[in-house]
């Protein structure tokens, strides 16, 4: 069985994380400090994008640039008209070094970005959410540990079982 984790792992064994950079962060708090409604809905989302480029002055290496964008949204649980309490968005650029000779299917790189990119950026995101929620007067919210789920991927021609 081929999974997103096994395809991501094909890339993971050939890369080194070089840098994690905060590209942007935005917070919009719409409640007074200490006035958090008793009942709220919390929504946490992320998405990734990937680009590959040659590494300057290193012909045998290339870079994988993975942008991981997160969104944390808190709303009141009012079914008729939920009100925004807090929206926090941030984007992290993760740069990985990769041996230029590595020849893998693009599907492997896509799953690497979705699994490893998010996994590697998650601790930075967790710290930002906890810090910002406390700074806007809300109880500090602790984002749970990131646990990537294995999803079965139909095997296409050119992608071999791990």
List keywords for this structure.
single chain; 162 residues; alpha+beta; Bacterial Protein-export protein SecB; four-stranded antiparallel β-sheet; 2 helices
Task: Describe the 3D structure.
The chain is an alpha+beta fold and 162 residues long. The chain has a single domain, classed as SecB-like (Bacterial Protein-export protein SecB, Roll). The protein is built from 2 helices and 4 strands. It has a 4-stranded antiparallel sheet. A hairpin with a 7-residue loop joins strand 3 (61-76) and strand 4 (84-99). The chain is elongated. The termini are close together. The relative contact order is 0.28.
Walk me through the topology.
Elements: H1 4-12, E1 15-29, E2 40-54, E3 61-76, E4 84-99, H2 106-135
Antiparallel strand pairs: 1-4, 2-3, 3-4
Helix pairs in contact: 1-2
Helix count, DSSP H or I runs of 4 or more residues: 2
- What is the CATH topology assignment? Bacterial Protein-export protein SecB
The 3D shape can be described as elongated
The CATH homologous superfamily is termed SecB-like
Helix content: 10-25%
**Major sheet summary line:** 4 strands, antiparallel
What is the distance, rounded to the nearest whole angstrom, between the alpha carbons of the first and last residues? 9 Å
Q: Tell me the strand order in the biggest sheet.
A: 1-4-3-2
By CATH, the architecture is named: Roll
Number of strands: 4
The succession of helices and strands, N to C, reads HEEEEH
CATH top level class name: Alpha Beta
Protein structure class:
alpha+beta
- How confident overall, as mean pLDDT? 87
């Amino acid at each position: 069985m081929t999974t997103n984790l096994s395809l991501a792992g094909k890339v993971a064994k050939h890369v080194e994380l070089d840098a994690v950079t905060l590209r942007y962060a935005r917070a919009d708090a719409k409640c007074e400090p200490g006035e958090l409604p008793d009942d709220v809905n919390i929504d946490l989302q992320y998405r990734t994008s990937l680009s590959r480029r040659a590494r300057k002055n290193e012909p045998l290496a290339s870079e994988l640039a993975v942008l991981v964008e997160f969104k944390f949204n808190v709303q009141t649980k009012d079914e008729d008209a939920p009100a925004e309490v807090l929206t926090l968005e941030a984007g992290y650029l993760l740069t990985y070094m990769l041996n230029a000779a590595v020849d893998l299917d693009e599907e492997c790189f896509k799953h690497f970005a979705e699994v490893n990119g998010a996994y590697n950026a998650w601790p930075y995101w967790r710290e930002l959410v906890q810090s910002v929620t406390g700074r806007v007067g809300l109880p500090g919210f602790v984002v749970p540990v990131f646990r990537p789920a294995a999803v079965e991927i139909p095997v296409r021609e050119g992608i071999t079982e791990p």
